[in-house]
Design goal:
The protein is built from 13 helices and 21 strands. The protein is α/β, with parallel strands linked by helices.
Length: about 400
């Protein structure tokens, strides 16, 4: 998205060919952006400047990507053309009011189904976006990024107040491209662009959310030791690694460096004894997508693990509190649903079982990892959804020694 509104050619290597990222690329193509695939993981994006997008000829399909549809709300509401976005059945059930309402306060003509709560979302040209102060009710990187994208086009400063830290990739990258920010502990001030953003050459760092499943596998399967190279160790994304360390895990970070304002490092992980712990507050935002696999990890820790302040799990691809509990119980886990998280008692010898993904990519991967340390074989129905965020998930596990096979995919 940022490369598309820059002036000139950007190169992105180690691009993730997952369904969500591919959905974003196709949306940008439908807006007139020239994107060339050099090899399986390198893209060249020809940016035509901040006013270079074109009106789409049809509804923009965001597939199953919440990140795509919410961030695009911010970018599209600043354009001088009409657009409509929709996506999968899951996307049409997910809450969009949290991003539509603050954009309307900026002056955007943006509306959704059911009183601006749900997709499809229609956006008409706005006369002018006016910078304002927004006090976000929840720490949401998606809402924040949408406001940043809109704020780059607004007249006057856009001030974003957060109740806690959230992922900050958007402000790091756009700052490296020439955008102007003032950042304090709980606020970001976005200044409107006075020139086009600069193109960039990026090697995408390893994703901590996807890496969490490999880390958990190494921590739970006896005798394991793995190293993950060129990982993002952005402090807003390392919640799972920090949580694992609190539980006594052998997770070590080496060779720290920076690339386009992003901290990168190598991470080594080894099997070891784990102990239960309680997690709440700011660290939950830093590992919200990793909480299902943290629950799996907790089944192998000695004592009770409590995960709180995670109501956001209820509005993901599924209600991940309910689905994580129901599927892990099939394997014999001692896990209880809380209103805002889980309570897990361990260690428990999990039993192989027939479980389902509920069409949720992170739940599919969590149950697969649970199967690696279970007694007997485990079958995960609907595991094809892992391509949403981790194409090659099964082959990666197999390369690490896992006894795993795919059927009917």
């Amino acid at each position: 998205m940022f490369a598309a509104i820059a002036q000139g050619k950007s190169r992105v290597s180690h691009f993730l060919n997952g369904s969500d990222c591919l959905a974003t690329a196709q949306v940008m193509r439908d807006l007139g952006v020239d994107i060339t695939v050099i090899d399986s993981s390198t893209l060249i994006i020809e940016g035509n400047g901040r006013h270079g997008l074109l009106e789409p000829k049809d509804v923009l399909d965001c597939a199953n990507s919440g990140t795509t549809i919410r961030l695009m709300c911010g970018l599209l509401c600043a354009q001088n053309f009409f657009s409509v976005m929709s996506g999968s059945e899951q996307i049409r059930r997910r809450p969009m009011g949290r991003v539509i309402a603050p954009l309307q306060e900026l002056g955007a003509h943006i509306h959704g189904r059911e009183s601006d709560r749900l997709a499809p979302i229609a956006i008409a040209p706005s006369t002018k976006l006016i910078g304002k102060t927004h006090n976000l009710g929840v720490a949401s990187a998606q809402v924040k990024s949408a406001l940043i994208l809109a704020g780059l086009y607004a007249s006057g400063e856009t001030v974003i107040l957060e109740p806690g830290p959230s992922r900050d990739h958007s402000e790091r990258l756009s700052s490296a491209m020439g955008a102007r920010f003032t950042k304090e502990t709980s606020s970001i001030i976005v200044s409107p662009l006075n020139a086009d953003l600069l193109p960039f050459d990026m090697k995408v760092a390893g994703d901590p959310s996807s890496a969490a499943f490999l880390i958990a596998a190494a921590l739970m399967v006896q005798g394991s030791h793995i190293q993950l190279r060129d990982m993002s160790v952005n402090a807003t994304r390392t919640g799972f690694m920090k949580a694992a360390q609190v539980m006594g895990a052998k997770v070590e970070i080496h060779n720290e460096r920076e690339h386009l304002n992003e901290p990168v490092a190598d991470v080594s992980v080894a099997f070891g004894d784990l102990k239960g712990a309680t997690f709440s507050g700011d660290i939950i935002v830093r590992m919200i997508d990793e909480l299902p696999i943290l629950a799996v990890l907790a089944t192998q820790a000695k004592g009770e693990t409590i995960i709180k302040d995670a109501k956001e799990l209820k509005v993901k691809e599924t209600n991940r509190i309910d689905t994580t509990v129901s599927e892990l119980r099939k394997m014999g886990a001692k896990i209880e649903a809380l209103d805002d998280g889980f309570a897990i008692e361990g260690p428990t010898q999990l039993k192989g079982a027939h479980v389902t993904s509920h069409s949720d990519h992170r739940l599919a991967m969590a149950m697969t990892i649970a199967g690696l340390c279970a007694d007997g074989s485990t079958t995960v129905d609907g595991a094809e959804v892992t391509v949403d965020s981790f194409p090659g998930f099964v082959s990666t596990l197999r390369s690490l020694g896992a006894d795993i096979s795919e059927e009917n995919l």
